[in-house]
Design brief:
Radius of gyration: 24 Å
Largest sheet: 8 strands, mixed
Number of helices: 20
Distance between the termini: 54 Å
Order of helices and strands: HHEHHHHEHEHHHHHHHHEHHEEEEHHH
Strand content: 5-15%
Shape: globular
Amino acid sequence: MLRGPCHLFRVSVAPVAALAVALVSSLSRCSLLEPENRVVSPLSPYFGTKTRYEDANPGLLPDPEAPRRDPQLLEETCTPVQLVALIRHGTRYPTTKQIRKLRQLHGLLQARGPGDDRTRAAGGGDLGAALADWPLWYADWMDGQLVEKGRQDMRQLALRLASLFPVLFSRENRGRLQLVTSSKHRCVDSGAAFLQGLWQHYHPGLPPPDVADMECGPPRINDKLMRFFDHCEKFLTQVERNATALYHVEAFKTGPEMQNILKKVAGILQVPVNNLNADLIQVAFFTCSFDLAIKGVKSPWCDVFDIDDAKVLEYLNDLKQYWKRGYGYTINSQSSCTLFQDIFQHLDKAVEQKQSSQPISSPVILQFGHAETLLPLLSLMGYFKDKEPLTAYNYKEQIHRKFRSGHIVPYASNLIFVLYHCKNAKTPKEEFQVQMLLNEKVLPLAHSQETVSLYEDLKNHYKDILQSCHNSEKCELPKVNTSDEL
């Protein structure tokens, strides 16, 4: 449970002094992250769920702390009364599984024999040797934890949202923040960093206290909401633990597009093609993205691939997201309906309180989760659905697909519902309106492409989902009749 109102501003002098030292130390470690030192790669648009937020939202680059107001946002006679935000964690380290694959690949490079003289003469160098000598600085303990760049993602997002919606993030509302998070450290730490960004908004130049010293304490953990997929038996059985559920992913790994890259990379690295597989190729590609995102450096791994390779590897990643989190199976999106319902329960309560002239009890609700939290929800709502399913066999036909995970759920991605009260409404129905933002840009309604909806109309459009969402029923496995039949 929350410990009470979330006052961001109670801190004694002694902790401030100690934290000032820690802050200076922290800032010194992330000098590579300053915008003027930002390193780019032509591969950056193709990293899928490993995409940097600023690569998906380049308008932020000149000043990542300044809000970018979408001109389609409501203003003037409509006042925001509630904001519900679903936020993916910031930039993270690779998982232990990814690090071990990279270590395996690094071992292959170090075990190579002398390079082929003809290859060196033709290419002018040995990229495999450069990669064998490139420091392998990843360690098992990192295992998907939030990095300093990820904390920066969250602090800057907090500063932008607080400036974009000053009425909601006002000093009067500061004690009514509601924060929920997944139990994963990267999400808990993202929530804490977001709170530190809010502190910075209210107290520029003053180091923030530890989140434990804020009256609300850390965000409340609720995995049934933020990791609903772990609590849905039908999803776990039919998709997560089903060896054939990702058939198209595995088929694409052995298909011509991936096999061409496999042979090409084997030649570049001068290792036997039989020692490589699609998983090792993918982890090499992602290592380019991790080095860029975490350290701000362009490693030799980026030189292994060209843009055509990157597009194929992006498709491989999107296939996995499509079949495991998107439209591939109905249960993927259905498992998120409790989260969808929770959002509308918050909005309903705010409408009721406003109608009865009560203060809004929770003007800002912040929920920190994963790409796996956002993608099923967006699919449930009908977003980014292509006319034809993504398969192992239609890569070329899907070049211009809508379902590109790096554009939808990069690090620090966010889906925001903003409820407005419009005082000059002609009818009671027009009094409450809603806009949605994806990654701080107005998201047109999936069914109408309008940029704003009357709240009642939005509820009516999704009424079948809202009324039929009994997660225990959606996620229950069919009963198996074990009785003997004659």
